[in-house]
Design a protein that fits this description.
The structure is a single chain. A five-stranded mixed β-sheet has the order 3-2-1-4-5, sandwiched between helices. Strand 1 and strand 2 form a beta hairpin. The protein is globular and about 70 Å long. The chain contains nine helices and twelve strands. The chain has 267 residues and is α/β, with parallel strands linked by helices.
């Protein structure tokens, strides 16, 4: 690996990298716990490469490893990366809501090529991992996703249809009235708890994203971030709820690397 340019997005959980080699853009990711070993390796293997940094650990990486690196604001780099990938997928809409689901979530407005943060939440991938561990004892991301995919949230949640039973509810009965509201003892399974947690994250983020979309008169909501990668249950629920509120959900390939890609493209 001897790229001429490298973009690095160093967040709270993962370190994501985009680099161009032989006219193709490639991606890699590392756990933030492995940051020092991976950056020492990168500094040796790509000593002459131009580097651009973004994310919460960007200043640390610049100080410790890449003193001549360019630092790009996180929201800006994510917007640039998302716009580039959208064009690659044949989507050239300049106006969209960008929901960046990382450790937490930032909700941004991209209008005519200019991006700004308009909302956000502490709910995100960190919530999935932390609360997921407390609820199930599972600390592996893939295992939590697998549990959620086989569980039923309605076994842990009070649904709207439960509140109005035996009569018909005035709104969609499959919506959640109370997350985890049915848990009164330890008889709810781990998989149902994981499904309930995933459902809570999806509903909350769609609610915030759609509110921003309505306020700014935007139809498309672009969902990106490492929390969505290999997470079919979360993507399914986000799509379901976004359509339910009358907005268009968009997931882009390699969306987890928008920040790193945007940093790379700034060089």
């Amino acid at each position: 690996m001897k790229p001429a340019k490298i973009g690095i997005d160093a967040g709270g959980t993962l370190l994501k990298m985009a680099f161009e080699e032989k006219r193709n853009i490639h991606y890699k990711s590392y756990l933030i716990d492995d940051m020092d070993s991976s950056m020492n390796w990168l500094k040796l293997s790509a000593a002459n490469a131009e580097v651009a940094l973004t994310g919460g650990k960007a200043e640390y990486l610049k100080k410790e490893y890449f003193q001549s690196a360019l630092i790009v604001p996180e929201i800006e780099s994510s917007g640039v990366g998302a716009s580039y990938l959208l064009k690659q997928d044949g989507l050239s809409n300049k106006n969209f809501i960008l929901s960046i689901i990382g450790t937490g979530t930032s909700i941004c407005l991209n209008r005519d090529g200019k991006i700004s943060r308009v909302s956000g939440s502490g709910i995100g991938g960190g919530t999935l991992m932390g609360l997921g561990r407390l609820l199930t004892g599972e600390k592996n991301f893939s295992n939590l996703v697998s549990l959620a995919g086989t569980g039923k949230a309605e076994n842990a949640d009070i649904m709207v249809k439960d509140i109005y039973s035996p009569f018909d509810p005035p709104v969609n009965g499959s919506l959640t009235a109370s997350n985890f509201g049915k848990i009164k003892d330890n008889h709810v399974s781990k998989k149902d708890k994981a499904a309930s947690l995933t459902n809570m994250i999806a509903e909350t983020l769609v609610l915030l994203s759609s509110q921003a979309a309505v306020h700014h008169q935007i139809d498309d909501i672009i969902y990106i971030g490492s929390t969505l990668r290999n997470n079919a249950p979360l993507k399914h629920l986000i799509k379901k709820y976004t359509v339910m509120v009358g907005k268009k959900p968009v997931f882009i390939q390699d969306g987890a690397y928008c920040g790193a890609l945007g940093a790379l493209l700034s060089l």
